[in-house]
Known about the structure:
Layout: H1 9-18, H2 25-34, H3 41-47, E1 58-60, E2 66-68, E3 71-72, H4 73-80, E4 84-88, H5 89-102, E5 110-112, H6 119-127, E6 131-134, H7 137-145, E7 153-155, H8 162-171, E8 175-178, H9 181-194, E9 198-205, E10 227-228, H10 233-243, E11 247-253, H11 264-283, E12 291-297, H12 315-332, E13 339-341, H13 346-349, E14 353-366, E15 372-378, H14 387-391, E16 397-399, E17 408-414, E18 423-431, E19 439-443, E20 463-468, E21 471-476, H15 481-486
Helix pairs in contact: 5-12, 8-9, 11-12
The chain binds ligand LLP.
Ligand LLP binds next to helix 13 and helix 14.
Amino acid sequence: MNRRTEPSLERRAIAGISDGGFDSVEKRAAASASSTPATSALADSFNGLPGHVWPRNARRQDDGVVTVAGVPLPEIAETYGTPVFVVDEDDFRSRCRDMAEAFGGGHNVHYASKAFLTRTIARWIDEEGLSLDVASLGELQVALAAGFPASRITVHGNNKTDTLLRASVTAGVGHVVLDCAEEIGRLSAIAVEEGVVQEVLVRVKPGIEAHTHEFIATSHEDQKFGFSLASGSAHAACLAAVDAENLKLVGLHCHVGSQVFDAQGFSLAAERLLGLMGELKRDLDPEDASAAVSILDLGGGYGIAYTEGQDPLDVPEVAATLLREVTTHAESLGLTPPELLVEPGRAIAGPSTVTVYTVGTVKDVHTAQDSTRRYLSVDGGMSDNIRPALYQAEYEGRVVNRFVDGEGISTRVVGSHCESGDILLSDVIYPDDITAGDLLAIAGTGAYCYAMSSRYNMFTRPAVVTVRAGRTRLMLRRETLDDLLSLEDGQF
Ligand code: LLP
């Protein structure tokens, strides 16, 4: 468990019954007493799988083995090796449906594919009736390769190349989100050449400081995305888009940041963008066919619980509030309420997945405070999860091949890379009976882990498997040495 977030018994009990049918703390304790008795409160807690952090279909069996969708994680580790990402397909799909229900239908929800994309994921998104947001040529190409309908794709990027713009226009994407002034002319020229009228949104920075890590806050002034509302450049960009040949301005976009827990940022952003919509209504000719500003895209950012002590953002509640506020505010400005779109990535993909590692070296290190810290090394690390190193992100791990019953010891879970900053869990109290060969799973790794993975130290990327109703499927195979060598061209 995490040192800084001692959960209350109530919190764990609530988690136990409210999300996905997890066993209550009491039931878990009884189960463990009947097979492998837990000897400490810490071990009892450590053996639990809080429902707001772990995949909806994760369970611990009476023998201590953790299953996801009925598949024992040790079995997956045996078949596919470790580290391995395990995606609970029903969890992923159910979060798509939750989002669609909250925001009035799948067409209003654009899954942010940067969180994690494969052709399989694109197919799931399509089957669940959601739309897709891509932010690069690669993401666009993978989506199209999956047969994802181009008309339900939105294209983002602060530095879109002509290649990306042309590929978007010729594929027939629904929307391109304009991010800088010179892009307007380039996109217009391409649309004219291709004989297409391209619908566009203008990305606005409403000047909101999201309370999240500096690197993932994207709506304040001093950053690279979009047009400033305060300076008037967003307004000017909208007029330029309307004037540009073969472009049709259909809405405004913003994204306040990622892993956001304070929903007021979304409300404030909506209010500011509606203000701009009001100005545009005043300035634009209602007969002008190149403008029909009817979309308000508020981006993604819905925060999830990575540890037991965190609460995920209550999406249905946030959605209901936003929809109500947008309607009221639009009407007070004399506007027809716009269609509200959102672009969640993490809140759909994140909680569906765990990464299973094998524990290797266990080393007790004397720290400067004259105490001991145990270093548990696992067989992956910053190459499959850069988030702790990049954002000081916190995670939660559990031994998944058995019950543990040791006493608490100050622990750091580290990877196998040649770098002391290769830390996955920085400061946790773990039972002291975790040993080499145990399987340690880390929860909440479905978003921005594989997507941001690297081959540092010539590590090969892990396999990704999906589980559903007791069956396992390989989504991405593990990279091999041949994959690494195959990039080398010619003689060496
Ligand atoms: N829409 C836009 C325009 C975005 O830039 C992003 C994320 C999203 C939607 C999805 O945000 P989400 O719902 O997933 O929070 N690598 C960082 C996150 C960077 C997100 C960048 N943009 C991390 O690992 O936390």
